[in-house]
Specification:
Distance between the termini: 86 Å
Strand content: 25-35%
Radius of gyration: 23 Å
Helix content: 25-40%
Strand order of the largest sheet: 2-3-4-6-5
């Protein structure tokens, strides 16, 4: 009988330890996901660039794009699409009619990279296609996607915030570089 009681107590103790361990582990995971930087914290550490500068530096090179992962930027760029969870932002142009970016005729523009900017729903609702914006966030992933007739590199910008809309921004012609 004593052995049975000792065995039951041992089993209860082991179950209790295992249960506490998994609760502790899930709390840590939840805490990590919820710990995001504020807009002010991101702006304090961000490198300020235009989409032109960063996309020109990447130049369609996947390795260069991957080297941006983990870096925080304050970027001025041009909204070409507003999707359900993110905005597609890229470099603006000089205004030359052969290269200008205007919503539906964007597919004719040979851009090598773009940003998927994950903003809050409220911020996404403020955006208009073909407007220039400034946003801050951390690049968390890269890859390629099919967009109209091209397959540009994308840079996911998560934990992002809208800084300004209707920004006076005119890029430079990347096709002549």
């Amino acid at each position: 009988m004593k052995k049975l009681v000792a065995l039951l107590l041992s089993a209860i103790l082991i179950i209790g330890l295992v249960g506490c361990g998994s609760i502790s582990g899930s709390d840590e995971g939840e805490t990590t996901e919820k710990q995001t930087a504020s807009k002010e914290e991101l702006l304090a550490e961000a490198e300020t660039v235009t989409a032109d500068e960063l996309l020109n530096e990447i130049g369609g090179n996947k390795a260069k794009a991957a080297s941006c992962v983990g870096k925080t930027y304050c970027i001025t760029g041009h909204v070409v699409e507003v999707e359900e969870y993110y905005a597609i932002v890229l470099a603006s142009d000089t205004g030359d009619w052969n290269n200008i970016i205007h919503s539906d005729d964007w597919y004719a523009y040979a851009e090598a990279a773009l940003f998927h900017v994950y903003l809050s729903n409220d911020e996404l609702c403020q955006l208009e296609k073909c407007e220039n914006i400034q946003f801050v966030g951390t690049i968390t992933d890269t890859g390629t996607c099919k967009y109209y007739e091209i397959e540009p590199i994308y840079l996911d910008v998560s934990n992002a915030y809208l800084v300004k809309t209707n920004v006076d921004y005119q890029g430079r012609n990347r096709l002549s570089n």
